[in-house]
Write a structure and sequence with these properties.
Elements: E1 3-8, H1 13-24, E2 31-38, E3 41-48, H2 51-57, E4 68-74, E5 89-90, E6 96-101, H3 107-116, H4 126-141, H5 144-154, E7 159-165, E8 172-177, E9 182-186, E10 189-193, E11 205-208, E12 214-218, E13 221-225, E14 231-232, E15 237-238, H6 254-260, H7 262-270, E16 274-275, E17 278-279, H8 288-292, E18 297-301, H9 303-320, E19 324-328, H10 329-332, E20 344-349, H11 355-366, E21 370-375, H12 381-385, E22 388-391, H13 404-424, H14 429-450, H15 453-463, E23 468-473, H16 476-492, E24 495-500, E25 517-522, H17 528-539, E26 544-550, H18 554-560, E27 563-567, H19 575-593
Parallel strand pairs: 18-19, 18-20, 20-21, 21-22, 23-24, 23-25, 25-26, 26-27
Antiparallel strand pairs: 1-4, 1-10, 2-3, 2-4, 5-6, 6-7, 7-8, 8-12, 9-10, 9-11, 11-15, 12-13, 13-14, 16-17
Helix pairs in contact: 3-4, 4-5, 7-13, 7-14, 9-13, 9-16, 13-14, 14-19, 15-19, 16-19
Bound molecules: 2-deoxy-2-amino glucitol-6-phosphate (AGP).
Amino acid sequence: MCGIVGFVGAEQAAPILLDGLRRLEYRGYDSAGIAVCGGGELQIKKSRGRLAILSELTHDGTDLSGTLGIGHTRWATHGAPNDVNAHPHLSRSGRIAVVHNGIIENYAELKEQLLNKGYTFRSETDTEVVAQLLDYYYDGCGDFFEAVTCLLNALEGAYALGIVCADYPDRLYAARKDAPLLLGYGEGASYLASDVTALIRYTRDIVYMDDGELAILSDRGVRIYDRQMRPIEKEHHHIDWEIDAAEKGGYAHFMLKEIMEQPRAVREATAARIQGGRVVLSDLTMTPEQIRAIGKIYIVACGSSYHVGMVGKYNLERMLRRTVEVCLASEFRYSDPIVGEGDLVIVISQSGETLDTMAALREAKKRGARILSIVNVVGSSIARESDDVLYTWAGPEIAVATTKAYSTQMAVLNLLGVYFGDIMGTVDYETYTDMVRGILALPEQMERVLEQGAAIHELAKRCAHHEDVFFIGRNLDYALSLEGSLKLKEISYIHSEAYASGELKHGTISLVEDGTLVIALATYGPLFDKAMSNVEEVQARGAQVLALTTGDRADAMAEQVDMVLSVPETEPMLLPQLGVVPLQMFAYYIALERGCDIDKPRNLAKSVTVE
Ligand code: AGP
């Protein structure tokens, strides 16, 4: 989604803004722009398309002179992606520039009021309404702080705002409601960004803004105000990951780098949480009594995080012997959910900023449920609003298509299942030790799967021409098929669907014809024979089958199907942890063969901060 950067200090702002925007490119965008204040005037440059165009247009920023500015990468919501709709947006006086992430829900009404007062609009965006409304208030009261306060009172919806006024050439204004925004503290400089990757090169001293807050940034520091416009002090966070973590490090794509990082990431997420063969979740504040008293369990998330929840449902139900509901956050929030005191809602999110997931969390919290989140981005909104957080410690994930976040979320959820199951008395000694041993062995097993890269690339070459693919599987393989299918479609643009194998004959099998590619997941031993029957079923209709199974069954499978991939044997509940790796690689190489923009697939954003 849209990215925001802001800078005020002693150096020229434009190159810093462009650099920050470049580091936010991974979030997904369709146009970009910057506004710099110098010599008491605002200079604006913006353009549709990649940031490289804006860099060229401004000669790497050297055309814009000034030490204060704001920048933006836009992911279109209101109005087409073009030069006019790109941010920053100017007020009619040309003295105020605004960048915005989020959606102003009452923009049409506000626009109407401004049109009646004689304002005109150049763009179709909700953001231009913000700039003009601010102009209107400022014109009326002559005090910019008061005007910003009036503006924030008038806006409904979600926003992260960066604002510059040429009459105050030494300060930036920032405001947040339901969209991420953070402040960076430097030597004689202050920064603003929608995520930390934009700032890590300049400062590691960060403050996360909360809803309703306003900040004024200058080269002397930052002043922050709460909803009532009272000055407040906030906790500072030190970002300790290395800048290399957000660089490609010699890989062709971030996605490939992040796939390859999974053994290390899963090790980091799990090793410190297993001590002497016991799962120790010291970051969890729930007492054993509270754990034993848990009522209903919900898992709520979006996209791939939801797919982790699907695996979690099977595994937690097995380990806790109780029903676990897994819900799409966008559905949960509007479903009048039957959730309340004593219930546990497990919220899963890589970014910790997904708007639907955040809204679902708030809904559950309002109804009295306890919130335990599994989050990657430290200090993110979801983490901060949860009762308990288990961080996944995967490091920054830049590719839009998630890989290492998925794996670490699943690893943490499995640990949680073992931990709860032990306390609840529903996991026996053997399962406990098998799971712990299996989790500890995962990184090394994942490394072995990664060694199959060249072979998977060859299979991808054979399959890259297909335009329709079906993933099928049962039980945990079904949960895994959802992720395999999403991975393929989101980066290669191949139409792909995932089905529970048993459902095929209830409709979908009519789509299987000569040459249709079916990816049959058959890692789950107890249902291997059933999986084989489903393979025969689709083959009888002419399907070409690529199967994924475990090493010990690979030969039997190879006799039956066209192509086979395998993963090492492990405790059945951990199979999706291994199975996902070849599916990620398969999707990656297919997209590579098709010449797709792998790290930045069309229409997608890394952090979905609008509804
Ligand atoms: C998957 O590759 C996507 N990036 C997407 O489905 C993602 O998992 C979803 O948007 C949820 O994001 P979150 O984990 O940051 O909440």
